[in-house]
Design a protein that fits this description.
The structure holds three protein chains of three kinds.
Chain A (H helix, E strand, L loop, with lengths): L15 E12 L2 E12 L3 E5 L6 H8 L7 E6 L2 E2 L5 H9 L1 E4 L11 H12 L4 H14 L15 H13 L5 E5 L7 H18 L2 E6 L2 H5 L4 E6 L2 E6 L1 H5 L4 H8 L15 H5 L5
Parallel strand pairs in A: 3-8, 3-9, 6-7, 7-8
Antiparallel strand pairs in A: 1-2, 1-4, 4-5, 9-10
Chain B lengths: L3 H25 L14 E8 L10 E4 L2 E12 L4 E9 L10 E6 L6 E6 L12 E2 L1 E3 L4 H15 L5 H5 L4
Parallel strand pairs in B: 1-7, 2-6, 5-8
Antiparallel strand pairs in B: 1-4, 2-3, 3-4, 5-6
Chain C lengths: L1 H9 L3 H10 L2 H33 L3 H11 L4 H25 L6 H39 L2 H7 L4 H39 L4 H11 L2 H27 L5 H30 L1
The chains are: A alpha/beta, B alpha/beta, C mainly alpha.
Amino acid sequence: MADLQSTPQPSAETDAVIDVRDVHYAVDGRPIFAGLDIRVRRGLITAVMGPSGTGKTTLLRLITGQIYASRGHVSVFGREIGDMGRAEIYATRKRMGMLFQNGALLTDVDVFDNVAFPVREHTNLPEPLIRTLVLTKLEAVGLRGAAHLMPSELSGGMARRVALARAIVMDPEVLIYDEPFVGLDPISLGVILRLIKQMNDALGITSVVVSHDVHEIATIADYSYLLSEGKVVAAGTPAQLAASDSATVRQFMTGGAEGPVPFHYPAADYASELLGEPA
Amino acid sequence: MRANRSLEIGTGLFVLFGLAALLFLTTQLPSSGFKFSFKRTPGYTVTAEFGNIGQLKVGAPVSMAGVRIGDVTKIGFDSNSQRAEVWLRIYQRFNQIPEDSFASIDTEGLLGGQYISISPGGLPTYLKNGSQIQETQSALVLENLINKFFANYANKSGSGGQGGSKEPKK
Amino acid sequence: MTESAGAMVSEGKRPPREGEPQAGPTRRGSREGLLEGIRKAGVTAIFFAQLLAACVPALSKPRLIIAQIYNAGARSLIIIMLSGLFTGMVLGLQGYGLLHRFGSEAALGTAVALSLLKELGPVLTALLFAGRAGTALTSEIGLMRATDQLTAMEVMAVDPLRYVAAPRFLGGLIAMPLLTAIFIVIGLFGAQLVGVQMMGVDRGIFWSQMQSAVALKDVTEGIVKSLVFGAVLSLIAVNEGYHTDPTAEGVGRATTRTVVASSVLTLLLDYVLTAVFL
C-alpha cells in the first residue's frame, strides 16, 4: 500500500484524465476558485484536500459538468466540458462513477434496485444478467447478503459501500469520492479505505478522493493537492506534503488552531466591542 | 418489482372509480344524453296526452291524493293529435286506479317543480299496462296566467289603462 | 453545506458589505425584492418548460407515472371522499333551509349540482390536494435534493427531471380531475341523503330538476378547472421540492410555501377561469 510509484509528476499531460486549468468560479460574487490547477493522471489515486469550505464539492460539480467555470478550462477524457452538448456530457458521465458523502441512495427502492438502477436506465440487459452483475458488485463490497434491505435499514458505512457498488456497476474509468470518510467508525473507515485502494488496483480505475482526513488519505493517495482560498497551495506525494515547510500546509497537516487559516471569524476590535463603542 | 401488486390494484381502483365518476357527471347530469335508470320499482305504464306540459321533466313524480304512486318515464310528442304524450309508470301495488281517472299537471309550491296529479274517477274497471288516461288538464303556465290577469284588469278599468295596452293580449 | 461554513472563515469583508443596503433607504430593498420576485417567476417558467419537455420521454416509463397516480390520487381518496360527502351534506342542509323560505325546495338538486360542479368541487379538491398530495410531493422531492439523490442521478447520467419530476407532475395532472369527479359525485349523494332522506324533498324532483338545469357546459367547466388546478398545483409542488434549500429547514419552508402558493393561486385562478367561462 505504502510504496509509491517513483513519485509521479502530473506534468505528463497525455495521460491526464481530468485536467483543470486556471479555473475561476464565483457564487453570488463571492470567489470560490481563483486560478485553480489540478491534473488527475490515469490509474492513480489523486487526493484533493483542504479545509472545509474551500470548494471541494464545487470542484466535483465542475468536473461532472453540473456547473461551468466562469474562466479557465476543465477537460475530462481530453474533451473540454464547456464545449460539450448535453448529450456528450451525459455520455461522459457514464464513464465516471461518483460516491457521495452520505451515499445518496434512492430511498424508495431496496439495495438491489439501487445498484441495478444505472444498468436498467442505460442498458436493455435481460433481468438475469442484471442480477448477476448486481450481485457481483455487491459481493465486491461485501454486501451481497444485504441486497433485499432498504436504504433506511443500513448503517452509514454500509450505505456508502452500497453506493460504491452502484458507482462501479457500469464499470467506470474514473471514480470520484466526495468526503468518503466523514462520520464513519474506525472499522467502516478501514473498510472504505481498503475498497478505494482495491478498486484502483484491481480494476485499474482512476480515483479522485476529496477529503480533509489527512492521515487516512495519506495512506492510499499517489498524489495530493492542498487547496486553500480558491487555489492550490501545495501539491505532491503525501511524503512531500508531510515534509513541507509551508505554514498553511503544516497547519492543515497537524491540525493547528492558529495559523494562516484564522481561528477567529473576522470581527470588530474585541476590546472596543465589549466596551460598547460603536464599531 | 415485487411489492407492486397492491400499488397497481390501488391505482387501478382509483382510476376506475374516478372514470366512473367522470362518466356519471358527463352523461347523467346534463339534460342531453341517455340516462341509466337506477331504481326499478316494479310497475305498469300508462300514457296521457296534454295540450301543454309546461316544465314537466322525466323523473317527476306522479301522485294521487298527495301520495306518490309512480313517476314520469318518458315525454314525447304525438304528431297526430299535436299534443304532448307522457308515459307514466305506476307502482305495481297501486293497481286499482279507475280507468276514467283525471290527470293534471300541478306545481309544487310557487316556483317548484311540476308533477302529475291523478284524481280518481268512478268506473269499476282499472288502468292497466298500456292504457291511456283520457281526461287531462294541461299545466298552468304562470306567464299566461299573469297575462290573462292583466288583460282582464285592463278591460275592466276601461281601455285607457296604460299597463293593459302594453301587455300582449291573447 | 460545508461551503457556507467555510465562507465565513475565508470571506472577511462580508459583514460590512451586508450592512450597506441596510443603511440605504428601504426603497432600494423593495426594488430588489421586486427584481427577485421577477427572477423567481422566470426560474419557475423555465422550469415549467423543461418539465413539459421532460414529460414526453417520461411517457416511455408508464410504471413511474402509475406509481405517482397512486401517490397523488389513490392516497388522497379517503380524505376526498369524506370531504365530498360532508360538503354535499351541508349543501343539502343549507340549500334546503334557504330554498324552503321561497317554497322552492324542488330546486335543491339544481342548486347543489351547480355549486358542486362549478365551484366547490374543483376548488375544494384542489385545496385538499395541496394539503395532502402537494406537501407530500414537495417534501419527498426536497428530501431527495437534500440527500443528494437528485445530484446522484445527474451524475449517473439519468435526468432527474425525466425520472423524478415529470412522472410526479403527470401523476398529479391525471389524478386531479378524477379526484374532483369523485368529490362531486359523492357530494351529490351526500346532498341527496340530507335533502331527500332527511328533509323529504322528492327524489324524482331532486334528480330530474338537476338534470334539466345542468348543461354539459357546466360539467366541462368543472373538469377544465380541475385540469388547470392539477397542472398548476403539481407544478408548484414539484418546483418547490426541486429547488429546495438542501437542508431539513429548507424542506420544511418549501412545504409551507407549496401550501400557501397553491391555495392562493387556486382561488385566484378560480376567479379568472370563472370569468373566462361566463
